[in-house]
Amino acid sequence: MIAYVMEALISKGRLLMKKILAGVELVAVFLLLVLSGIVFLQVILRNFFETGFVWNEEFSRFLLLSIVLIAAPVVFYRNDHVRFDMLAMRFSERFRKIQSLLSVLVVIAFYSVYIISHFLLMKNSGNVLSPSLNLPNTIFFSAGLIGAILGVGAGIARFLRILFYGGRQ
């Protein structure tokens, strides 16, 4: 009975995480399109009209960091990140499972520390405005917080998937 309930909870959680991360992926693609458009516009303005927007450089950095920080949990959840597993493949399946579980716990710990430090930093400098966009730091660094929260969720989901299914599924 307990195993059935656990299986149902894990299944529902996995479905929810996939939906959330699919939405995050769409947001990242949209931000990439916006980034490409404003960088292209800036190149055209500078090369052909010898002018440009002051805010464009800062906004481009903001978009690039936002894309990376919110998309990293998607890659982490799918286990699609770059890894060097030549040495790990020489060990037993049990060792690799333990190593994977420990790796996921380290990533969850990193994201958790990031969340705590984000709140500590924003407590002191959250109202400081960015130079050209005049965005408060709370908005400018919000993608990092969103990505870290998603990273903890993705990490928990991956941990459970490795623990109960050995990383398959």
Please describe what this structure looks like.
This protein is mainly alpha-helical and 169 residues long. The mean pLDDT is 89. The protein contains five helices and no strands. The two termini are 22 Å apart. It has helices at residues 2-49, 55-78, 93-125, 137-140, 142-165. The chain is 79% helix and 0% strand. The radius of gyration is 20 Å and the shape is elongated.
- How many strands? 0
Derived structural class: mainly alpha
First-to-last CA distance: 22 Å
The biggest beta sheet reads: none
Q: Tell me the number of helical segments per DSSP (H or I, 4 or more residues long).
A: 5
- List low-confidence stretches: none
Helix content: over 70%
* Percent range for β-strand residues: under 5%
Average residue-wise pLDDT: 89
N to C succession of SSEs: HHHHH
General shape:
elongated
Provide a compact summary of the structure:
The protein has 169 residues and is an all-alpha fold. The chain has five helices and no strands. The longest helix has 48 residues, at 2-49.
Supply the key terms.
single chain; 169 residues; mainly alpha; 79% helix; 0% strand
Write the topology of this structure.
Blueprint (H helix, E strand, L loop, with lengths): L1 H48 L5 H24 L14 H33 L11 H4 L1 H24 L4
